UniProtKB/TrEMBL annotation:
Keyword Metal-binding included in the entry's annotation: yes
Chain coiled-coil ranges: none
A Pfam family of this chain: DAO
SUPFAM superfamilies: ISP domain, Nucleotide-binding domain
Protein name per UniProt: FAD-dependent oxidoreductase
Annotated Gene Ontology cellular component terms: cytoplasm; membrane
Superkingdom of origin: Bacteria
Keywords from the UniProt entry: 2Fe-2S, Disulfide bond, Iron, Iron-sulfur, Metal-binding
Gene Ontology MF terms in the entry: 2 iron, 2 sulfur cluster binding; metal ion binding; monooxygenase activity; oxidoreductase activity, acting on paired donors, with incorporation or reduction of molecular oxygen
Organism: Bacillus cereus
Gene3D superfamilies xrefs: D-Amino Acid Oxidase, subunit A, domain 2 (3.30.9.10), FAD/NAD(P)-binding domain (3.50.50.60), Rieske [2Fe-2S] iron-sulphur domain (2.102.10.10)
């Protein structure tokens, strides 16, 4: 491995291979029936479904449309969400586990049928999905998951070998799942939404909601969207409504490489249940197969030298397939709830016309699509069997309390450590392309020296609740280890819950 092994900066294949539509930013006050905030798979699908019902919808996004979280996925369209069904049965019972499987299977079928209906050229392919293990402990866990599949009548196979060159103890196959290019799919849904009269605004950041019978979404530029319903699909909810989502979810980073391999890839989607996790699928790029390898999850802001995660994936790829080239690398942020089920529905009982969808635990293609259907049903006042399962106001004694305590003790630990950490370097110590915690005028700061030698210096105190952000050298960002906020080299907010930029610091 050399410095030329990877692209210098992260580059998502999905984003690089898509020609994006352009939309205006909101420059005036507007009225609509439903304001959807966030134009990823949940927001676009929700807007599309409501528009099909004749509802007036306005869709906004803080960045460029289709450039957010959905553009950094592995894009598996499956109801096989790692080891989950045995745990769901244990904690919530057979019926709720069945509902979880059913909602995600319906989402898969909706995507499949939508691709067929509109003849969407998005590299959609039906693939079997595999969970595999190489350890004795993993074998016990996978066996229990297989038993859960049988209880739920999930079509599956339990096998002892794979067609990829990984020796396994066993593997659990969920049949007839899928993969696709998510942005090419969503481009068509977005086109249909606009054709039906939907309005789209990009680079329009929602910062608050003024509650009432006709709530108003307030943008950073000071404009207002007056509506009957607000739907937050902004990854981390842009509006909290005293729901304290930052205490009920935690953020994880994970990494992906798209490689040109020395050996052929036989097809299928794979995920190891052992640590370190490894996710596999293929991409078709200009008629050529690339293998997409993901893994190396860690809590945001706690990855230390994040380039090591890319290097670990490369070592796995080289040992397993042989690597000719790594044309793409990127990372993603995912939100995990206390009980591993997403929060979808009324943000809380006090705000019946404000909805939220978040916490997909890395499985946003199906869960985000399922969320869109539930949100549509809620707004149209159609009963849904999934309403209670995903209700954001739920709280279960097990496993919520245990996870709540452990995650918030971790927050306290990093809050304290950040305050007592001593910065030994100065901005002048940095090499070109390097970022680090430094001291400026005796105070902790963060500095990055770009390729022109210009210094970008920020206050490292997170604007959410005051933890100290850490440098992410793999993505050239400042990441908060407490609640997962992320900031650019100039301090601009890239991921919430923070909604204010880091302060800039003068080096005098």
């Amino acid at each position: 491995m050399t410095s030329d092994t990877f692209p210098q900066l992260p580059l998502s294949y999905w984003i690089e291979s898509t020609q994006f539509p352009t939309f205006p930013h909101l420059s005036e006050n507007v009225k609509t029936k439903v304001a959807v905030i966030g134009a990823g798979i949940t927001g676009i699908t929700t807007a599309y479904l409501l528009a099909k019902e004749g509802i007036d919808v306005t869709l906004i996004d803080s960045g460029l449309i289709l450039n957010g979280t959905t553009g950094h996925t592995t894009a598996k369209v499956t109801a096989q969400h790692d080891l989950i069904y045995d745990e769901l049965i244990d904690h919530f019972g057979l019926e709720k586990a069945r509902l979880y499987y059913e909602s995600n299977s319906h989402a898969l079928q909706f995507i499949r049928e939508t691709v067929q209906t509109y003849k969407i050229d998005c590299n959609f392919s039906n693939e079997d999905s595999y969970l595999y293990t190489t350890t004795d402990n993993g074998l016990r866990n996978l066996s229990k998951e297989y038993e859960a599949y049988q209880k739920l009548n999930i079509p599956c196979d339990y096998i002892q070998s794979l067609s990829i060159p990984i020796p396994v103890q066993s593997a659990l196959v969920m049949k007839n799942q899928a993969q696709f290019h998510p942005l090419l799919y969503l481009k068509i849904l977005l086109e249909r939404f606009v054709e039906m009269g939907g309005k789209v605004y990009e680079q329009t950041t929602a910062i608050d909601v003024e509650k009432g019978d006709s709530p108003q979404v307030i943008t950073k530029a000071g404009h207002r969207i007056t509506c009957e319903y607000v739907v937050s699909c902004s990854h981390f909810p842009f509006y909290d409504a005293s729901s304290f989502f930052f205490t009920r979810m935690y953020a994880e980073r994970s990494y992906a490489l798209a490689i040109k391999a020395k050996t052929d890839y036989p097809g299928g989607m794979y995920l190891s249940i052992d640590d370190p996790k490894r996710s596999l699928r293929y991409i078709t790029s200009n008629g050529e197969k690339l293998i997409l390898i993901g893994g190396e999850s860690h809590k945001t802001g706690q990855g230390i030298n994040t380039m090591l995660h890319y290097e670990a994936l490369y070592s796995f790829a080289e040992a397993t397939f042989g690597v000719d080239e790594v044309p793409y690398r990127w990372s993603a942020q995912d939100l995990i709830t206390l009980d591993k089920l997403p929060y979808i529905g009324h943000i809380n009982e006090r705000n019946p016309n404000i909805f939220v969808a978040t916490g997909y635990r890395k499985w946003g293609m199906t869960t985000g699509t399922a969320a869109a259907h539930l949100l549509k049903d809620s707004i149209l006042k159609v009963d849904s069997p999934y309403k209670e399962l995903f209700a954001p106001s739920r709280f279960h004694a097990t496993p919520d309390i245990k996870t709540f305590l452990s995650q918030n003790m971790d927050v306290a630990k990093h809050l304290i450590e950040g305050k007592i950490e001593t910065a030994l370097r100065t901005p002048e110590d940095l090499e070109v392309g390097e970022g680090s915690v430094v001291h400026v005028n005796g105070k902790r700061a963060g500095a990055y020296k770009d390729k022109e030698g210009k210094l970008h210096i920020v206050d490292t105190t997170c604007t959410h609740l005051g933890c100290e952000v850490e440098w992410n050298n793999g993505d050239c960002t400042w990441d908060c280890p407490c609640h997962g906020s992320r900031f650019s080299i100039d301090g601009d907010v890239m991921e919430g819950p923070a909604d204010q930029p880091l302060k800039r610091v003068d080096n005098e």
